[in-house]
Design goal:
heterotetramer, A: alpha+beta, Ubiquitin-like (UB roll), five-stranded mixed β-sheet, globular, B: about 130 residues, Aldehyde Oxidoreductase, domain 3, four-stranded mixed β-sheet, 3 helices, about 40% strand
């Protein structure tokens, strides 16, 4: 399923969608990978990862079969 | 509790009112969020609302579940608009109907506060001065 | 703060929404009180609202003055119906517009709570069982 | 101007309007006169008097030129 990027995270990465990098098996490692490749993401006041449409904690395991999303600070309403 | 959750291009207060209307309820509280023509002192041309729709709908249902668990609310409508919105347009409508008004105020305020914290919707502002 | 105060036979939510609509405001909170089809377990046929109109208008203006003094509210509409009202009919509408939603909730709840305490309007209930 | 009666106060007195009784010169005395003549009024959870469209305290002076109103518990909304 790969990774969906929204809002300013999409602007920073320059793409709305990417594949899950190889060797990344949990949310914490994905966040670290994202910060390494797109350092501007560190300037966000928060960056949540959603797995299969629910907010996930760093320890949550992920595979290429999951729907993963990068959620910068929301601003609906 | 009956729930109406909807994310779409254009929303109206009337559809929320129609949904929550019930002769069993005596008090209805409605919150509407509209696009302002300025923010932090800068003129606003338009907003663009982006949405991770499948998850947004799921998070809105979680909010409804919490409302149902906390208060004796009969009807809850949560509507959010997407796409380009201009000053005066409606971005969000929360409508709550209950037999008693105090809990209707509490539930409505909880719903909009939580929606703004948890539902994956993002607004991008376009200013008159052309800067980001 | 712009104020619309009205007491008349029939009121609508739309006229309150139309009045408070402003591109300067981002949050609107509306309370509507509708006639329930039961109260304290008894079926309601209709209500009759009696009003000491000149004083009611005066007391509603006092509430508006208090809202203006306490909160940064841009628009306030207070409408009350009179005469025979049936289940589902609207008896009262309070609508508040502000740049910030928190105070809009506070001002709207204060207004309806105070209206129910101080404004000289009386409802007479007509029950299905025919007793007073 | 006389005295206006509303809601259940009107029902108890059997009239929507009456003249200010002679020798009554303040709100407290009027309330006492009303309780004496219509004892059922004492069963109300509250009975306010308005003078010229404002709630009045017992000490407020009244004359036949004032618009006086008997206000049983309100129940708007």
């Amino acid at each position: 399923m790969g990774i969906l990027l929204f809002g300013v995270a999409k602007d920073i990465a320059g793409t709305p969608k990417m594949d899950l990098p190889e060797h990344i098996t949990d949310v914490g490692a994905l966040k670290q990978w994202l910060y390494n490749h797109y350092p501007a993401l560190m300037q966000l006041s928060s960056m949540m990862i959603a797995v299969n449409r629910s907010y996930a904690t760093d320890g949550q395991a992920i595979t290429a079969a999951d729907e993963i999303a990068v959620i910068p600070p929301v601003s609906g309403g | 509790m009956d729930v109406l959750i909807s994310i779409k291009e254009t929303i109206t207060v009337q559809e929320a009112l129609d949904f929550i209307q019930s002769p069993e309820c005596g008090g209805e509280v409605i919150f509407t969020g509209t696009i302002r023509n300025h923010t932090k002192g800068r003129g606003v041309v338009k907003l663009f609302y982006e949405c991770y729709e499948a998850m947004a709908i799921s998070e809105m249902h979680k909010i409804a579940d919490h409302v149902k668990a906390q208060w004796d609310i009969k009807k809850l409508a949560m509507l959010h608009a997407t796409g380009d919105k201009y000053p005066g347009d409606i971005a969000v409508v929360i409508a709550v109907a209950s037999a008693h008004r105090g809990i209707a105020f509490d539930a409505c305020e909880y719903t909009i506060d939580t929606l703004k914290e948890t539902v994956p919707i993002w607004k991008k502002e376009f200013f008159e001065d052309g800067r980001d």
